[in-house]
Design a protein that fits this description.
This protein is α/β, with parallel strands linked by helices. It has two domains: 5-68 and 79-138, Leucine Dehydrogenase, chain A, domain 1 (Rossmann fold, 3-Layer(aba) Sandwich); 150-291 and 318-344, Rossmann fold, CATH 3.40.50.720. Helix content is 46%, strand content 14%. It has 14 helices and twelve strands. Strands 1, 2, 3, 4, 5 and 6 form a six-stranded mixed beta sheet that branches. A six-stranded parallel beta sheet has the order 9-8-7-10-11-12, with helices on both faces. Helix 2 (54-74) links the parallel strand 4 and strand 5 (80-87). Helix 5 crosses helix 12 (315-330). The protein is globular and about 60 Å long. The structure holds nicotinamide-adenine-dinucleotide. Nicotinamide-adenine-dinucleotide binds at residues 149-150, 153, 182-188, 205-208, 211, 226, 240-243, 262-264, 290, 293.
């Protein structure tokens, strides 16, 4: 790590706690970052990645943990933001010992940080973490876990699309509306199913032709090439593939009135939010729209019920609407309004908690109960 580690940490946010974890016996090098626990325990997945430098890993965990604070707050959940990174190649370095050692470190935080799977880690890895600590979600269904979050994420995206359509087009009935879906993976494929049920006219694209064929055969959707999807004339673009889909090159291509999809980090830079506003395109901020998966995990902390998780994802509609209200109130782009919505909640509820410190968080209590069983 560089000699100015604290300076670097300060640059990426006002984090509460950062834990550097090392166990030479199993080759573990990890960093856990707790950004903010004003609303509840810091929840965020564990990413395993072959970072080129330790500094790169630190920057990643600082950024990602801060993002989780905003996502949970804007979702209306009693959760804070945290994240962990394990430095190493997920293809060659994974062992039971490594994840159990990591579980020890998670356990040492006593529930202030709750982990889950993320890029490079799997349900199987989380099972090993779970052997050492109860502070883990995304465990298999047999253990009371919630399983694959994508159907819930996709249902939340549908709610985000409806809220945006209501805002921009005056109706949230999607029948006959043209919706372009980029990416037919876990989220995109479920979204297409929901859109089909709504009677939308769906246009899709994926670089994986097998996925395109399956979707076409199942729902009779219109198919365009990956190069053409963003320029499709439609009411709604729903990016469900990779990030930075709105950038200096693509922004001139859009022929839609709304962008609302499941992909993370859709704006290449913050300024692209303002650029979309100038073009008259309503942007539904990604982390507000795609919070259904996180809502699903939250229900796991309370004691899992698929119906309750599904019901909870309906809240995305109100959350997106609230962001639009703030954008109008303060005359700011919607991406900035999303951050403001999250910050306002953290300040209001954080103050409330200071005044009433006796109230404990439900997620905390329930996981403790799990531990005692
Ligand atoms: P996935 O890997 O299952 O699916 C992504 C799909 O996009 C793949 O089918 C891939 O072939 C396709 N793709 C990649 N590049 C493309 C391109 N240029 N044009 C068209 N298609 C392309 O991933 P996922 O789990 O469905 O997640 C999709 C996005 O949603 C990601 O940005 C992810 O971070 C985000 N997200 C997912 C969840 C979840 O619950 N899975 C939750 C929140 C956010």
């Amino acid at each position: 790590m560089s000699s100015n580690t604290f300076e670097l940490i300060g640059k990426y946010g006002d984090h509460e706690e950062i834990l550097f974890c090392q166990d030479k016996n199993v080759g573990l090098k990890a960093i856990i970052a707790i950004h903010n626990t004003a609303l509840g325990p810091a929840l965020g997945g564990t990413r395993m990645w072959n970072y080129k430098t330790e500094e790169e890993a630190l920057i990643d965990v600082l950024r990602l943990s801060k993002g989780m604070t905003y996502k949970a707050a804007a979702a209306g959940l009693n959760l804070g933001g945290g994240k962990a990174v394990i430095i190493g190649d997920p293809k060659t370095m994974k062992t039971e010992g490594l994840f159990r050692a990591f579980g020890h470190f998670v356990n040492s935080l006593n529930g202030k940080y709750i982990t889950a799977e993320d890029v490079g880690t799997s349900v199987n890895d989380m099972e090993h973490v779970y052997m050492e600590t109860p502070w883990v979600t995304g465990i298999p269904k047999d253990f009371g876990g919630s399983g694959d979050p994508s159907p819930y994420t996709a249902h939340g995206v549908l709610m985000g699309i409806k809220a945006s359509a209501h805002e921009k087009l005056g109706t949230d009935a999607l029948k006959g509306m043209r919706v372009a879906v980029q990416g037919l993976g876990n989220v995109g494929s479920h979204l297409v199913k929901y859109l089909h049920e709504e009677g939308a006219k769906i246009i899709v694209s994926d670089i994986d032709q097998a996925r395109v064929k399956k979707c076409h055969d199942q729902f009779g959707v219109e198919v365009v090439s990956p190069e053409a999807i963003l320029g499709v004339e439609c009411e709604i673009q729903a990016p469900c593939a990779m990030g930075a889909v709105v950038n200096d090159q693509t922004i001139i291509q859009f022929r839609c009135q709304i962008i609302a999809g499941g992909a993370n980090n859709q704006l290449a830079e913050t300024r692209h939010g303002e650029a979309l506003r100038e073009l008259g395109i309503l942007y539904a901020p990604d982390y507000v729209v795609n919070a259904g998966g996180l809502m699903n995990v939250f229900v796991e902390l309370e004691g899992y019920s698929p119906d309750r998780a599904f019901e909870k994802t309906r809240k995305v509609y109100d959350n997106v609407k609230k962001v639009f209200e703030i954008a109008k109130r303060d005359n700011i782009p919607t991406n900035i309004a999303a951050d403001r919505s999250a910050e306002e909640r953290i300040i209001t509820i954080g103050r409330l908690k200071q005044r009433h410190p006796g109230k404990s968080n439900r997620a905390f209590t329930t996981l403790k109960e799990v531990n005692n069983r």
